[in-house]
Design goal:
8% of the residues are buried. Helix 1 packs across helix 3 and helix 3 packs across helix 4. The protein has 5 helices and no strands.
């Protein structure tokens, strides 16, 4: 049974509103308990399920950050370490 993440979040929230124990919700939705608690806490802080879902979707957008140190810079550092017999 494949479900979209947004569907899982909405279903988990509805089940928690009905008083279903978190362990049962996590098993039914096929997620970890920590993930469920994180979702429910996020919904509580957002104040509304729709606001949380919008924030959840926007958090998944964007490009990945570049590496902090360029590969060529690392190579230069390694060459300097070899040249000057430095341990780093």
């Amino acid at each position: 049974m494949d479900m979209n993440q947004l569907t899982k979040i909405a279903l988990a929230f509805e089940l928690s509103e009905q008083g279903t124990p978190c362990l049962h919700i996590a098993k039914q939705v096929s997620i970890g308990r920590a993930t469920l608690y994180r979702w429910l806490d996020g919904i509580e802080h957002a104040g509304d399920l729709e606001i949380f879902l919008d924030k959840y979707l926007n958090a998944k957008k964007g490009t990945r950050r570049k590496r902090k140190v360029d590969g060529l810079l690392k190579l230069q550092i390694w060459n300097l370490r070899d040249k000057y017999d430095c341990c780093g």
